[in-house]
Amino acid sequence: MSFLIYFALLLIIPLWAQMKVKSTYNKYSKVENSTGKTGAEVAREILDQNGLYNVSVEPIGGRLSDHYDPRTKVVRLSEENYYGHSIAGSAVAAHEVGHAIQDKESYAPLRFRHALVPVANLGSNFSYLLILAGILFTSANLLLVGIVFMAAAVLFQLVTLPVEFNASSRAMDQIVSTGMIRNNEERQARKVLNAAALTYVAAALVAVLELLRFVLMFVGMNNDD
């Protein structure tokens, strides 16, 4: 029964976070901001105010596909946010610019996360294979190697948290100080950013729980020996 509850939590936590961000985004993507600025205009204005004239803003297909690409120095906004005038679009655009500002300032957690990408990718691709092999062949050594690979991927998830929270904090500071959002809009924009942050918290929590489960399995396997 405990295993069923555990796996139910692994399924429910990320699903709940995704539902929360989608419902909050859907609500405030229908609320026009008072300045009439598009997401693209919001992003461009904040970039220019921070001297990031070399960073471009481009539309991209998909929904909630917004991101900042540090390799090409491009803020990519989903078409809905790029062309739209919503509170949600303004908040998301400012958040992605927050990552560009982090990049400019060489924000330490962002740099650390970038350095972890190759190791985290290896961990994501091979950890479960090694762990499964360790379980099937009752090999504590294989299980341990798989746990190490998984730990790298989990560390990436954990480092992502301060990066995302800091980008949201920068976003709120920028759009409030410049008057891009006003009065009650600040609370609405914060709701959008907080809901988005939940997805990262949920992913990190699930990753830590999975790592802990396999660590306990490794300890039990060693005790049996």
Name its key features:
225 residues; mainly alpha; three-stranded mixed β-sheet; 7 helices; 3 strands; elongated
Secondary structure topology:
Layout: H1 2-28, H2 39-49, E1 56-60, E2 67-69, E3 74-78, H3 79-83, H4 87-104, H5 108-136, H6 140-177, H7 185-224
Parallel strand pairs: 1-3
Antiparallel strand pairs: 2-3
Helix pairs in contact: 1-7, 2-4, 4-6, 4-7, 5-6, 6-7
Describe, in plain words, how this protein is organized in 3D:
Keywords: Membrane, Transmembrane, Transmembrane helix. It comes from Fictibacillus solisalsi. The chain crosses the membrane at residues 126-156, 192-219. The protein has one domain (2-224). The protein has 225 residues and is mainly α. Helix 4 crosses helix 7 (185-224). It has helices at 2-28, 39-49, 79-83, 87-104, 108-136, 140-177, 185-224, and strands at residues 56-60, 67-69, 74-78. It is built from 7 helices and 3 strands, in the order ααβββααααα. It is elongated, with a radius of gyration of 20 Å.
